[in-house]
Amino acid sequence: MRRDGKPALHIPADFCSRFRANAYARAKLISMETPIHRPQPASPVYEVLSQSRADLEREALLGDGLRAALWRREQLEDTIYDRPTHHTLSLYLEDGYDVYLNGQPSRRGGPGKLCLLPAEHESYWRINGRIRFVHFYFTQEQFGELAVRMLDREPRLLALRQNIYWEDDRLAGLGRQLAAQHWQDSESRLNANAIGHEMLAYLLLNHSDRQRGLPVRGGLAPTLRRRALELIDHRLDGELTVGELAQALSLSEYHFARMFRESVGEAPHRWIMRRRLARARDLLSRGDLPLTVVAHRSGFSHASHLTRHFREALGVTPGIYRLWTQNRG
């Protein structure tokens, strides 16, 4: 009986011990929650996974700003991608049924499922089971160059659509072909490079949207942009400077360079080099032209100059590339 005359509250003898046991169990459960790997902002997806519990089976730089990696995850660990500066296409090869975006547990992965993660996106992945997948990474510059050439569109006016867990037989087939290449020799990497370019073109035509309602400032007028690109392609076999291009468009060199970059997504000299290398690849694939002739017609001062830039861009020499094109038939 309490002092105020009310009956005392009866507490079972084992209540305290059960309370302590339950509290301990809850604390243990919290400590066993799936760990989270939090990267630095703008970290490439490849680096995020390399620093996580994911296992890398193999990876390779494929040339032209393309990269592929084959991953396997056996351990539970949530993963966050925080505004990477490149695009990522993911194809699940095995399992993945217990992987989903945070807050969307009803949408699950599985073999054949695709994920398109554009540059600057943010996503939080719950990894609650085994998964094996291939990643295809490509730069904004490479995608932008394709948009200009194929669609005559400025890259800043196009956006890749983020898409999670959709199925596309054509794209998944290309992804499996990419994963089937072992990427460890020149022929395999060149095969993977060709597959990668086919995937890029497919994504551009089927999974990009025109940016609407965005204020567009600066850049070259469409007619001037086309004129500049035509001049570059027409004069690839000779000396070509930014000053000459600017003069042809009646612009100062400074304003032309700035406006060109805004319209095309990269500086004029980088675009010119990309086009020179494309010309060289085309000439190498046509027959047995001497390398000095290929170099001259592509705007390189000598064969060694072409070879150095060719190897930097594609990872192989012009001779190996020519042999590869001949073997492909």
UniProtKB/TrEMBL annotation:
<dbReference type="Pfam" id="PF12833">
    <property type="entry name" value="HTH_18"/>
</dbReference>
<dbReference type="InterPro" id="IPR018060">
    <property type="entry name" value="HTH_AraC"/>
</dbReference>
<dbReference type="InterPro" id="IPR009057">
    <property type="entry name" value="Homeodomain-like_sf"/>
</dbReference>
<dbReference type="GO" id="GO:0003700">
    <property type="term" value="F:DNA-binding transcription factor activity"/>
</dbReference>
<feature type="domain" description="HTH araC/xylS-type">
    <location>
        <begin position="226"/>
        <end position="324"/>
    </location>
</feature>
<dbReference type="InterPro" id="IPR018062">
    <property type="entry name" value="HTH_AraC-typ_CS"/>
</dbReference>
<keyword id="KW-0804">Transcription</keyword>
<dbReference type="InterPro" id="IPR050204">
    <property type="entry name" value="AraC_XylS_family_regulators"/>
</dbReference>
<dbReference type="GO" id="GO:0043565">
    <property type="term" value="F:sequence-specific DNA binding"/>
</dbReference>
<protein>
    <submittedName>
        <fullName>AraC family transcriptional regulator</fullName>
    </submittedName>
</protein>
<keyword id="KW-0805">Transcription regulation</keyword>
<keyword id="KW-0238">DNA-binding</keyword>
